[in-house]
Design goal:
Rossmann fold; alpha/beta; 237 residues; 10 helices; seven-stranded mixed beta sheet; 2 domains; single chain; 20% strand; four-stranded parallel beta sheet
């Protein structure tokens, strides 16, 4: 069997080339129905099932958090990887969420390390007040660089994975990837014992976590609102 936990792009590329006799268990942030990975969440069909951990779909909450942290921020930088299958839908969602708060997005596309650096140069040139980083595997791999650039640029930045805050980032809200991967392990075990993937509905993550790094907030001169601190699942000091 194949366990695909490298994000949506891994699953999209794996499904067409893996023989139907080989089961696939995935963990992905995108909508597996919209992307044609499964027929439905309850009845995935074929040889594939897994966990949708719903990081793609939280743009509204991420921008709400930025609004709470930097209420006067009208110009928001949005970092996205154009090679990610979710790029178009994530951009639409982020724009719709920004409209709710009367914000304007400055879009920067990056799929290489040099382009990530250029993106932050663009954000500084455009004088954005804060940044929202989209979630996808390449950015997660490059989280140390992204967090460092955000700090060097003195830009409050919101992420959707705890891993960025653990690397020194300011704040994140999203699914627990560790929890999602544990669920993948459970499904993998059940399939190895004889259960068909088609009989296992796609699980959707139910655990979301708000992580705040007070050291990063202090470096940016941000006083984190008490309401956010009270809601936080973890505060890194």
């Amino acid at each position: 069997m194949l366990v695909a936990t490298g994000g949506t792009v891994t699953v999209v590329k794996a499904k067409p080339v893996v023989p139907p006799t080989i089961p696939i268990v995935f963990a992905m942030g995108g909508d597996p129905v919209e992307l044609g990975i499964v027929a439905s969440l309850s009845r995935p069909g074929g040889n594939i099932t897994g966990v949708s951990f719903l990081v793609n779909g939280l743009a509204g909450k991420s921008l709400e958090i930025l609004h709470d942290l930097v209420p006067k921020a009208g110009l928001i930088g949005f970092l996205i990887n154009p090679k990610d299958p979710n790029a178009e839908s994530d951009t639409r969602e982020a724009q719709a969420a920004a409209d709710v708060f009367g914000q304007k997005l400055v879009l920067a596309r990056a799929s290489t390390e040099d382009e990530i650096e250029s993106a932050f140069t663009t954000f500084l040139r455009q004088q954005v007040a804060a940044v929202f980083v989209d979630t996808e595997p390449f950015f997660t791999q490059q989280r140390v660089k992204i967090v460092a650039l955000a700090a060097q640029s003195a830009l409050p930045t919101v992420y959707q994975l705890r891993e960025f805050v653990a690397a020194g980032g300011l704040i994140s809200y999203g699914t627990s990837i560790a929890n999602a991967n544990r669920e993948v392990g459970v499904y993998t075990g059940r399939i190895l014992k004889g259960t068909k993937p088609a009989d296992l509905p796609v699980m959707q993550s139910t655990r979301f976590e708000l992580i705040i790094n007070l050291k990063a907030a202090k470096a940016l001169g941000i006083d984190v609102p008490p309401i956010l601190l009270a809601r936080a699942d973890e505060v890194i000091e």
